[in-house]
């Protein structure tokens, strides 16, 4: 069978993990589940045809070409010739850091927990675990659980952790009375209330989550009574408090150890300058760390006079977006602003001021490489083909067949998730839906990319257009499904 030749790695997975072997061998398929003469006539499905039909569906969904990791992706139409001003956030937008910075943040945060908050010295033995967490996760401060939530507020089962321990699906379903998280727990209504679900949205939060999970695990193992909310607040405050120390440590001599140098950044910024584009940088990092802040350089402090105009080459601090627009005369839709934090960098300026926005998501490059890998493509094609068979099987009375297909699908889902991150999967999707993080990304950014210099691959007048994605009722896969179904119609 074609599937057998194609999927060597996948074949091993199926052989080892799944009882239902029809994907590999038609004979095994019929022997392992039914004999042909036992097929209920009411099912409308001829089992001898199932593997062929699976292959047809697999091939339909397996033909997509690879995605270039350095593309710029459009959520909304954006004509670059309309853009006169380019603005940038600093950390993880213009400055992208190596993973060594996560180790440093973790170590410094852990020290603060011990020295300032008097946490047990034993936590010194708990090291940073790379790839434990991803950004965009939610932490339930009441139950002390870390989890991934999708755009429909559904918890992704299998991605819920207390400390370093995965929580059983049944326990999660009992705790939340299902898998739905009500809006009031997750989204502020603007009344300044404390939310029970805290979302961890930036890359600095990845080492913070790991520290929180390690400490939680230590407390659990040693039967130390604690409030998850207090642990969360202490960890967050500890990590936030290290920024001045971190900036002091990362001086000119050490910057190369932490900063991922992109030579093309110079080319990119010069290209903007040569095309008479105005540029500005907004950062909350100290001036000595980023040499673009409102300081009087000679006296090394801020001036006292009221600022009524903004002059090129000067550094300003504080102020508001509204004042910035008033003083410069810039129109919101002529500004393209880049940031890595969906809420604090992008949401307000696009919702309230109409700025065009570009999100910088450094994880994108790695996720696209996984997406392009043969392992992933085969697994996801098989998943979609299986899902179509499951859809068809629903109209039968054959619950045993349906159970087998669902069991196989669930094993494959777990496998595809692990290809991105063993605990939490992709930052962009759960099994079927975009994540909560993705939904905000698509809403608050016009374009998104792994790094700003990806724009060097496009002209200064490029018009970005979102791909005309198929709506569920327009899917060509569904059309294959319908055509196949029609052949079964009486
Ligand atoms: Mg940033």
UniProtKB/TrEMBL annotation:
Keywords: Hydrolase, Magnesium, Metal-binding. GO terms for molecular function: 5'-nucleotidase activity; metal ion binding. It holds the Pfam family 5_nucleotid. InterPro entries: HAD-like_sf, HAD-SF_hydro_IG_5-nucl, HAD_sf. The keyword Magnesium applies. It comes from the Eukaryota. SUPFAM superfamilies: HAD-like. The keyword Magnesium applies. PANTHER family: 5'-NUCLEOTIDASE DOMAIN-CONTAINING, FI20020P1. Belongs to the 5'(3')-deoxyribonucleotidase family. This is 5'-nucleotidase domain-containing protein 3. It comes from Medioppia subpectinata.
